[in-house]
Amino acid sequence: MILNVAVIGSGFGGLGTAIRLKDAGIGNFLLFERADDLGGTWRDNTYPGCRCDVGSDLYSFSFAPNPRWSNTYSYQPEIWAYLQDVATRHHLRELIKFNHDVTDISFDPASKLWYLTTNQGVFQAHNVVLAVGGLAEPRMPDIEGIESFAGSVMHTAQWDENVTLVGQRVGVIGTGASAIQTVPQIAPFVGHLEVFQRTPSWILPHLGHVVSERSKRLYRVVPLAQKVVRAFGYWRRELMVLGFVKDPSRMTKGETLAREHLERQVPDPQLRQRMTPHYRLGCKRVLISNDYYPTFSRENVGLVTEPIERIEPQGIRTADGMLHEFDVLIAATGFYVTDNPIGEKVHGTKGEKLSRAFCGDMANYKGTMFPDFPNLFMLGGPNTALGHSSIIFMHESQLNYIIKTIEVTLKRGARVEPTIDAARKWTQGLQEKLPGTVWGTGCSSWYLNAQGKNTVIWPDFTFKFRQETRHFVPKDHEITV
Ligand code: N01
Questions:
Q1: Where are any strands of DSSP class E within 305-345?
Q2: Which of 33, 384, 446, 478 could form a disulfide with 10, with the two C-beta atoms 3.0–4.6 Å apart?
Q3: What residue's CA is closest to ligand 1, atom 4?
Q4: Atom 12 in ligand 1: residue holding the nearest Cα
């Protein structure tokens, strides 16, 4: 059977694609999922304290509001349950090929089809939607000797509940979004905890709170009320673009707030100094937490800012020669983003790999399509991620364009790809904008590729991306029937 569409992944992106395909009356499609359950990053990240740093009303599908969120910023179990619920309501489970790990996706010019090689056989499809997620492939730290460690090592995104932490000596490497959520949760029951900080993060007060039963009832009875809350949250976040993109000097206001937060929560001036960032707020992802800083007032918790030299069987050796001994090491060291391994598995009409698009060598069109990769779409593609708002909004925008383009391919039996000119114009336009933004003010971040180019972030208002992806523009595409 030749599929109309093969969707890779069953997280927010894959499920959203499936629902929109159904809504458009497009059948004969399947989702390929390497794991035995759906949910993507919200299935995988089960570390204690895992929580979304975008409010739930906005970090959910616009077409599937959830009046039952228990907190304005949900924890992982509730977001995962939301995705399960959405899949059940839309009858998506039967369309998911679980335990199908896609190892190769190649275009065959003779049959004009995509061939998907999986661990359970080969599938053919007219169209492919990559919905693999930008934060799906955990990155272990590249530290000499890590394999020699005698205790247990785990990445936050591959949390192993069988590893005992109670009473143990635990080292956490990294101080990004994952670390600041899990450190306060594990500190009370581990024996001793040391957090290895390479670069301090800017941390703002967390405004999340429990949703009252009254509000939940109101959202159930008057769905418009939740839409209004969502819209308010959306526009409040859009205002942040003025600082992130238009004039990064406006971020000083946020820096003051963050410094006051640090001062309130960390009484020790020396520790405070070590935790103070020296780059513009927003250049790296802005974090929110009310319980991370106070954790360092605990007797059993320490911050290490001395650089890590190597890992030895007993623990971590720092540059000052000191050996920090541990039973367990936790790597909160992020993901392969600009070098997402999926790029190595996708081959276009000339056999070239999609990874060239992530490293910025290949032009892309609206972060979604690529010349020489006909009928192939990527959710969360180059320069579609955000520092200030919900990625779900971006996915839904991309899906407007994707569904319209798939309709063209299926109605006319056509190969559709963006023209080189349209893709270059799009990519260059963004790259010219990026140096003036907060992400170009000088810091290292997972938004930048190995050459220092920002191939991750959308540098504008998200409503502008929504406008750009509203229509299929025939003149920007080569359509071969
Ligand atoms: O990863 P990160 P994360 N030696 O890349 C350090 C999303 N997320 O998993 O800053 C020593 O931010 C590294 O140091 P430095 C969210 O979008 C969302 O925390 O490079 N340290 C840094 O401190 C987030 O931004 C939620 O100097 C090393 C840390 O490890 C993204 O995922 C929750 C090192 C990595 O931080 C990634 O967050 C959690 C080394 N060799 C995550 N290598 C939500 O709430 C790396 N580091 C939605």
A1: 308-312, 315-318, 323-325, 328-331
A2: 33
A3: 141
A4: 176
